[in-house]
Amino acid sequence: MKYCVLFPQAKNVHLIKDVGMIAYKLHKLYSVESYVACYNNDRYDYIDGDLKGLKLDFINKKHNNDIIDGSLYLRKNAKTIDVLQLFHVTARSVVYAMVYKHYNRNGKIFLKLDCTENLLNKIKSLSTAGRKFFNYFFKKVDIIGVEQKKLFNEMQLLLPNFKEKFKYIPNGIDYDLFKSRNIKFENKENNILHVGRLGAEEKNSEMLVEAFVKLNEINNDLPWNLILVGESTEAFTQYVENCIRKHPSLRDKIKQTGPISNRKELIDIYAKSKIFCLTSHFESFGIVLIEAAALGNIIVSTNVGIANELVAYNGGSLIEDSNIEDLTNKLSYYISNGDIERLSSNNVNLIQENYDWDKVVMNLYNEITK
């Protein structure tokens, strides 16, 4: 079987997310011939490292238009592709589906929705013509993956004609890496961890810094650190520096690591932390949430992505978007919670049971080979 993920924008970092991991696991577990088809955008170091066996097939950037270039790629290769993985409900995906099915009627399309509430609202507001076009697209698709249980159930109710095509396919954790990490709670440090594009408007990282400042104003001897991981804008770096100038006692407590591309190094940081905080205004899934929970972090997050499903099992709490007082109180609660070790263990077990890429891909493989 030849499995192709068509995603022209793929860079190295995408390969350790759903863009590369599903194809990689299909190859590793079931000897599927797996490819990611993309422009030559980056140095793809993971191909010869953690994802050995996954292949890249570079798309000719002849027209510098991903719809045209991707369609030309499919015209040339569709007949040899048994399963085509696409992403999102976009004009690009619609065109790719039409071209692929034109040249390979027996081929299967797996559409990974990366579903959000916004998509549901768009579907609800479609005009009659828009609904017909939408239905035409979904008829071309064989498997439609929805990453969150709530949205999966809502999609089935909203589009009952395609109920059998909808499959619950969450994102996952690669336990080939995570199993090797020591996540005994006694080895953890008093760290509140935040991972993301620091300073990006949608990440709202300033909210966490302000809450941490407040925690230390309440207790200047608070023996906890704030670890900020990710590429930072100049404005955010300056913002943190200004906070430290105003509160000199925080100089050794707030630590910016910069971007970390080494997965094992990042996993070690997760493993040493006790609380993971996400303050985003918006996330489609929030892969960092399951990575953090897998390594025993309590989750404190705005109600974005998978956060609501994770905290439902008493492994953390949701916070109100942009409510610094709410975040301060929730962090204070877990910092002083004598039951934090049990909550940490709950999260480790929850992720192993429900978000292991091997299990997720096994279910997808069974659907593909029905």
Give descriptors for this structure.
seven-stranded parallel beta sheet; Rossmann fold; 16% strand; 2 domains; 44% helix; 370 residues; single chain; 13 strands; six-stranded parallel beta sheet; alpha/beta
For this structure, the CATH topology of the largest domain is: Rossmann fold
In total, the number of strands is 13
Give the CATH superfamily of the largest domain. Answer: Glycogen Phosphorylase B
> Major β-sheet, in short?
7 strands, parallel
Strand arrangement within the widest β-sheet reads: 3-2-1-4-5-6-7
Shape: elongated
CATH architecture of the largest domain: 3-Layer(aba) Sandwich
Protein name: D-inositol-3-phosphate glycosyltransferase
Keywords: Transferase
GO biological process, one term: lipopolysaccharide biosynthetic process
Pfam families: Glycos_transf_1
Give an overview in words.
The structure is a single chain. The chain is α/β, with parallel strands linked by helices and 370 residues long. The protein folds into two domains: 2-172 and 356-368, Glycogen Phosphorylase B (Rossmann fold); 177-354, Glycogen Phosphorylase B (Rossmann fold, 3-Layer(aba) Sandwich). Helices cover 44% and strands 16% of the residues. It is built from 15 helices and 13 strands. The chain has helices spanning 18-30, 66-77, 91-103, 117-124, 128-140, 149-158, 175-178, 205-218, 234-246, 263-272, 287-294, 307-311, 324-335, 340-354, 357-368, and strands at residues 2-6, 33-38, 55-58, 83-87, 108-112, 143-146, 166-168, 191-195, 225-229, 254-258, 275-278, 298-302, 316-319. Strands 3-2-1-4-5-6-7 form a seven-stranded parallel β-sheet, with helices on both faces. β11, α11 and β12 (298-302) form a beta-alpha-beta unit. α2 (66-77) packs parallel to α3 and α4 runs parallel beside α6. The longest helix is centred in the C-terminal third of the chain and has 15 residues, at 340-354. The radius of gyration is 22 Å and the shape is elongated. InterPro entries: Glyco_trans_1. Residues 181-339 form the Glycosyl transferase family domain.
